[in-house]
Amino acid sequence: MNSGRPIAAGIQTIDYPPIPEESLANGLLVQTIEDHRFPIVSVQIAFPVGRVHNTDENLALLQLAVESVKEGTRTRTARQIADEMDYWSIHHSGELYMESTLQAIRVLEKHLERGLEILSDLLLNPVFPEQELEKTRARWASLLRSQRSQSDFLATERAYLACFDGHPYSRNTIPLEHLRKASRDSVIESYSRNFGPSGALLLFAGAVTHQTSVRLARKFFGHWTPQSAAPIDYPPLRKMPARRVLLVDRPNSAQARVQVASHALPIVDPDTVLLRVANQVLGGSASARLFLKLREEKGYTYGAYSRLKTYREGGLVMAGAGVRSDVAGESVDEILHEFSKMASGIPSEEELSRSKAEIIGSFIRQMETSSSIGGLELRRRLAGLPVDYYRTLPSNVQQVTPPMVRQVCGRVIANSQPAITVVGDRKSVENQLKHLGDVEVFDPQGNRIG
């Protein structure tokens, strides 16, 4: 008989697989998650290099470098690379994150060596041909222009710039002029200076043994000259001395995007698990407080959610919704009220049980394939989390109590001034925000308006 209790609620530990590892002489760490159910191998190589490693002079260089490694090497043109990947059914991806970069391939087991030969060529021998680099610039210029038409992007950009003012974490977007000024020589120099095997992680997941992984790693990456990015000397994160009210003017917009952002904890802080549960209670799903208040009770929006972003030195809790312009101010007031309630009250047992089950259930779904487990492991290693972090995560989530949620919210929300951002028609929403404080107005390009 079904008791109504979520299945995930009873899970205490996860059978997280042992992951053998071995370091090569050049500093590259090789790991393997062996899984022979399917004849496929995922190869992921992660670097401790992210957007924070860009210089203030040009925030486009690393993005262009990561995007363009597949556009030509010393022995292959972009067309040859694309044709070979199609012929051997190799799927390649490259992503730049705030504090890391991931290059990956997915290939049939029988074509693994061919895939590794191509991947090593991309990473060790990129030449960044000017013609191909110009195509990448054009793609990114189009993407950046498109982003500036999206209210969620504009709100998040303002939140990062306000909350991380003067800190590398504020480098969350690329100014269009930086893209235009990024020369081929500067892209080559940035790639050479930041990407190398020292401190990088090479993870094989799928139909491969660890012995084979190490042998192939030595064959294709063992001659890679030791190199790594210089460690980031992070300045102290400064809390905002007062609340900031930020308005991005989008004339004639029928809707407004409202968002409240508050400083969060570093990813390695033990209380981050408590904060994850708190965020789930606040706005992690359609059963959470923000959704129930702003949609179900008030009818202001189709959906209201919160999200938690955590990095090595700090993070953000961001809560928001797309609402009718005539209720933008009231929506901000309601979000602020829900933030205050998180710090002063405690969640009900029903809220807490549901939130825990949602977190654990989501985590279990990420454990379904060896490749996704590999992604978790790479994030754990790069973040500096404990070896048993994932194995004990369900138990740690289960142990969270209502007073613990209030305690962490008091530590985080009550001790941090929020950045309030509204993206919408200035004529319709500015007067609704004046009771919150002085309103700073910007255009969609990020320029301050008097």
How would you portray this structure in words?
43% of the residues are buried. It is globular, with a radius of gyration of 24 Å. The longest helix has 18 residues, at 130-147. The model is unreliable at 1-7 (pLDDT under 50). The strands form 2 sheets. A 7-stranded mixed β-sheet has the order 9-10-8-11-7-12-13, sandwiched between helices. A hairpin with a 5-residue loop joins strand 12 and strand 13 (448-449). It has 450 residues and is of the alpha+beta class. The protein contains 16 helices and 13 strands. Helix content is 42%, strand content 19%. The chain folds into 2 domains: 17-221, Cytochrome Bc1 Complex, Chain A, domain 1 (2-Layer Sandwich), CATH 3.30.830.10; 244-449, Cytochrome Bc1 Complex, Chain A, domain 1, CATH 3.30.830. Helix 11 (328-344) packs across helix 15 (402-412) and helix 12 (349-365) packs antiparallel against helix 14. The chain has helices spanning 61-68, 78-87, 112-124, 130-147, 151-163, 176-181, 184-194, 210-221, 272-283, 289-297, 328-344, 349-365, 370-383, 389-398, 402-412, 426-433; strands at 21-23, 29-34, 40-47, 91-96, 101-108, 201-206, 244-249, 255-264, 301-310, 315-324, 419-424, 439-442, 448-449. The N and C termini lie far apart (65 Å).
